[in-house]
Amino acid sequence: PGGAQIASADFDLTAAGDLPLASLKGGKIQVRQLRLGGAYDGLKHHLALNQASLDSRQGIVRLRGGADFHYEQGALARIGWGLSSTRIALNMPGVFAQTVGFQSLQLDGDYQVPSRTFDITRASLTAPGFDFSASGAITLGEDGQAPGIVMSGNLAALPVRTLLRYWPLPMVEGARSWIDANIFAGTLGPVSFETHFPAGLLDQDVLPDESLTLTFPLQGVEGNYVQGLTHLTGVSGIATLSGD
After folding, report:
1. What is the pLDDT of residues 134-166, one digit of tens each?
2. Residue 22, Cβ density class (10 Å: 0-12 exposed, 13-18 middle, ≥19 buried)
3. Average pLDDT, the chain
4. Residue 243: what pLDDT?
């Protein structure tokens, strides 16, 4: 009260250089141009992100969105945010098995400042033959711990090799590796998943069974059930994978 306040501001920022990303082959994203453009309304505490674009050797991303800042007793308590994209093209060895492109991305939620928690009310991602949606919460860990992740979601039915194209290599890599090594053809889904990862759990070598549930029907599958035996073919059923 009584201090200076920004009533409105416009911004247009550009940058270039290298961004570190440990999981990426080469360990960095080589940014040709990063551009952020928008406006801030200090009276409504609203930030409009009219343009956020990334052009790099590893991909092209176009985003738009905004955020609303909510205060309690003069302190920032919550940030409501939303982001959307109509173009994402990625060439990231070590993150994806091959080049991928996504048609749309939508993220909506809140950031709770006291608990350092991102509440995700809607997360959706679509691509040719790929339709994913999820919701949940991500809580930042202390002292470099991996974040806590409590999420649930669904993926529409799709061919198994299409699924592996879009599945990031570092994400639940045990389940991904099992599917890649043991299911060679057929359709999976719809896929349902739940994660219950407290902060720091993802730093461990083995996940407890109860921390992850991944369930999916199978149709027309060729799979390896017992190593060394002839593959099963024409398989239908339901598979459930858990933490380890």
Report:
1. 999 999 988 888 999 999 999 999 999 898 999
2. exposed
3. 90
4. 78
C-alpha distance from residue 163 to each of 99, 131, 172, 176, 181 (Å): 13, 10, 13, 9, 13
CA gap 152, 157 in Å, rounded: 16
Using CA atoms, how far apart are residues 213 and 181, in angstroms rounded to an integer?
A: 19
The number of beta carbons lying within 10 Å of the beta carbon of residue 168 is 16
- CA distances (Å), origin 87, targets 7, 53, 65, 90, 110: 33, 10, 14, 10, 24
Tokens of 80: 């409501």
SS3 114: coil
- CA 244 – CA 241 distance, rounded (Å): 8
- For the chain, percent of residues with pLDDT exceeding 70: 98
Three-state SS for 146? coil
H helix intervals, 106-168:
160-166
CA–CA separation, 163 vs 150, rounded Å?
Answer: 22
Convert the pLDDT of each residue in 68-102 to its tens digit.
999 998 899 999 999 999 889 998 888 888 899 99
pLDDT of amino acid 1: 45
Is the separation of the CB atoms in 166 and 100 below 8 Å?
yes
